[in-house]
Amino acid sequence: MAKDKEFVQAITPQGEDFSRWYIDVITKANLMDYAPVRGCIVFKPDGFALWEAVQRELDRRFKETGHRNAYFPLFIPESFLQKEKEHVEGFNPELPWVTEVGDEKLEERLAVRPTSETIIGHMYSQWIQSYRDLPLLINQWANVVRWEKRTLPFLRTSEFLWQEGHTAHATEQEAREETERMLAVYTDFVENELAIPVLQGQKTPSEQFPGAVATYSIEAMMKDGKAVQAGTSHYLGENFARSFDIRFLDKDNERKYAHTTSWGLSTRILGAMIMVHGDDRGLQLPPRIAPTQVMIIPIGPAKARAQVLEAAQQIQTTLRTAGIRTDMDASEDVSPGWKFNEYELRGIPIRLEIGPRDLEAGQAIIVRRDSGEKLPVALADLGTRVDELLIDIQASMLENARAFLRNHSRAVHSIEQLHEVVRTEKGFALAGWCGDAACEAKVKEETGATSRNIPFSPPERMPTCVACQKDAAYTVWFGRSY
Amino acid sequence: MAKDKEFVQAITPQGEDFSRWYIDVITKANLMDYAPVRGCIVFKPDGFALWEAVQRELDRRFKETGHRNAYFPLFIPESFLQKEKEHVEGFNPELPWVTEVGDEKLEERLAVRPTSETIIGHMYSQWIQSYRDLPLLINQWANVVRWEKRTLPFLRTSEFLWQEGHTAHATEQEAREETERMLAVYTDFVENELAIPVLQGQKTPSEQFPGAVATYSIEAMMKDGKAVQAGTSHYLGENFARSFDIRFLDKDNERKYAHTTSWGLSTRILGAMIMVHGDDRGLQLPPRIAPTQVMIIPIGPAKARAQVLEAAQQIQTTLRTAGIRTDMDASEDVSPGWKFNEYELRGIPIRLEIGPRDLEAGQAIIVRRDSGEKLPVALADLGTRVDELLIDIQASMLENARAFLRNHSRAVHSIEQLHEVVRTEKGFALAGWCGDAACEAKVKEETGATSRNIPFSPPERMPTCVACQKDAAYTVWFGRSY
């Protein structure tokens, strides 16, 4: 992992070019590299460690809500995909097809999974016979492939990693509750672990999952005012149950179709986390998810080195014992200044400097990545203080992101205003919508913004459609999106 | 997951038909199901939980030995595979090819990875510039595909899950040490977590990894006397470094090729665990890896039920607090006898029965899955005693498997004797080998056995080649294998 140790290369400022800033940060922070396959990336260890942290926290929540992990095949026979008409139409242009193995042509083409409703639906039809087999609550961690035209590291890649939950229930009500429960799990995870505030709501029909009855999403705002759909939860009704014959004998001795759901969150969340929190100095990782929460940097002249190193080691032990993920950079081939820049770039929440004068004073200097604030802390108080600070940084990051979202969102009454908000002010617009797909399309054509979702509890109800000025049936968030 | 609650279906005895026994056990224990894609299986939750346990314990060991996880693309451009001639020849017949996306033909075919040396080699050539970038120690957890002619659940499936480590080093010595270190990690993991004794050694040239300089393996013996290669570690020399131009500027200012290694362990290890420990009653899970170590079953008449349930709950809390993975089956729709059979089938190491008379006596009954032994244990001692018993069961399982391996292995001096050992006695034969591939092929043709490996420390040195009776250059384990 070659890195020029002489200087930290400049990052394009966000205000100058947000896209270049993003690419600069993710490459210089060593999170990813471009792969030699169209639209694919390599998750380098520092990037993959973020995904491992996401997996750990989400998987815990899935298991706490009664789900178990399983694994289904990567390949989906063409005939399976065609059983659900909307589904195959939605995904067809993006599907990679395996047509031959070795030197032999396959009799039936195999799609590389873009999502697994169809193959899981097929298995569920065999596993579910009676109401006693329900609910069936399964999650899968997997790679999926969608050949996207425009790609962007983490946010939209041909292959990506995700989890996909697939559940089957005896009644519509139970399935709808599950759909909502998992949206709440995502919201809790994204807000409390990643410090990203989200807008919960239902997707409009034109934006929903192919084959779903209703799609719910959480939407986050990046620092350039664009939206990232951070997670989705779908109520699939009986659609897939009918296509794949998932039926069960109910308590009343009648054979009924199961109601199914699916829900997913992918590695795009890493892109969102970077774009929500990053700044001109680089990444900014929320403490709860940061693989390293504290980086210790011993400083001072060579003659004091042994003594300082010993103290730094002790601090590392103290913090690790307190359950704080702590590392130390005692390398001598680069300057402390270089290290300060480097670990700011990498987004480590707290830098802890310790030198001979600090030692004499019985203290260390703590520097917050979020505010840049420097605090001398008595060595005896380090465990407690660092813990408090990590909690405070986590809370501040969420609060700052909330303020940003609030300050870049407003209600609009016309397409001109909507254009102003999404293009000039760079944010989200809350607008009325009559429910006609043509009006949604008009907004998109004239402003580039799409409906993000129909919020469960909008800040206000908008009375007229932003496009046709007729009575609004819905109040909708609009925004440009990744 | 429909399961007939009236009775536990009979399992074919191992002595009658080992293959049918295996399929009976893995299906009735709900570990897997056949997928509608040739040679692929679905890992059902009870099966996937075993893989999660393997991942947890192996991943910990990889991180302790300085490795970090990353993720590389699923697809490998055809031109990459062709850069390493032996490698592509070895894998070509098993490669699924993506030739089209949506309705468009790809300009270059993409292989679905059978292993990732080539694409990782390409990335390493860009990441490694200087000796300071070495060693590079990366692991990947991934799905891979090899279109096998004969498939068997877990042991040989078209798609399987594995981890593949890929490291690069400045010198041959360091790379060889890494190859040995990871073989030792596998050995430690397989013996101490899975209670499977293994034979460590080097593969003969005809059995080594395509593109490797040397392949090392650990080989385990199933209860039918056949071998499973449980893990492999390859020293790749400069082969992949030359094919992919992985060069670095060394301390002496010379540009040199890196020495690389790779090592892998896959979901086939689950098949091995089942075939090493299972018996006519079903699975037998080693306590250290068992997702559930203790299953509590409350028994007794309805009038005592509330009191027994309360005690059972308390026991569950006590055991869980002691860090023992404990579950309880208090369902009323099946008999205790049905449950006993069911959890024996599922291989749970300890069953804990508690009824009104036990309560009066201040005890519970513990039943070991391995020996069937029943032990009354005072409630006050449960935490300690269960912990001791789990340790004892783990040790006994390893010891029993070691005795089995010992009793089914012996030295042979002729092909006839070798045939006798692998076909009639059903075990491994230790034999001399001159080093000529023709002799190895002759053994295979006449006995069906392949060379398993050349042990680092054979129990004895065999003086003459088992096939040609010339001087032996090596002492080799032969066996029929999965």
Would you kindly provide a brief summary of this structure?
In chain A, 35% of the residues lie in helices and 27% in strands.
Secondary structure blueprint with pairings:
2 copies of one chain form a homodimer.
Chain A: H1 18-28, E1 32-34, E2 41-43, H2 45-64, E3 68-69, E4 75-77, H3 78-81, H4 85-91, E5 96-101, E6 104-112, H5 117-127, E7 136-145, E8 159-169, H6 172-192, E9 199-202, E10 214-221, E11 227-237, H7 239-244, E12 247-249, E13 255-257, E14 259-266, H8 268-277, E15 294-298, H9 305-321, E16 326-328, H10 336-345, E17 350-354, H11 356-361, E18 363-368, E19 374-378, H12 382-407, E20 409-411, H13 415-425, E21 428-433, H14 437-447, E22 450-455, E23 474-479
Parallel strand pairs in A: 3-7, 15-16, 15-17, 20-21
Antiparallel strand pairs in A: 1-2, 4-6, 5-6, 7-8, 8-14, 9-10, 9-22, 10-11, 11-14, 12-13, 17-18, 18-19, 21-23, 22-23
Helix pairs in contact in A: 2-6
Q: Which structural class do you get from the secondary structure elements of chain A? A: alpha+beta
CATH topology of the largest domain in chain A: BirA Bifunctional Protein, domain 2
Number of helices of chain A: 14
The CATH architecture of the largest domain in chain A comes to: 2-Layer Sandwich
Q: Major sheet of chain A: order of its strands?
A: 3-7-8-14-11-10-9-22-23-21-20
**Superfamily at the CATH H level of the largest domain in chain A?**
Bira Bifunctional Protein, Domain 2
The whole-angstrom Rg of chain A is 25 Å
| Shape type of chain A | globular
The level of helicity of chain A is 25-40%
| Low-confidence blocks of residues of chain A | 1-7
**Oligomer category:** homodimer
- SS strand fraction of chain A: 25-35%
Our measurement of the CA-to-CA distance between the termini of chain A, rounded to an integer number of angstroms, reads 29 Å
Counting DSSP E segments of at least 2 residues, the number of strands of chain A comes to: 23
| Total number of domains of chain A | 3
Largest sheet of chain A: 11 strands, mixed
- Please state the average pLDDT score of chain A: 96
**Largest interface between protein chains, with number of residues from each side:** A-B, 59 and 59 residues
Which CATH class of the largest domain in chain A applies here?
A: Alpha Beta
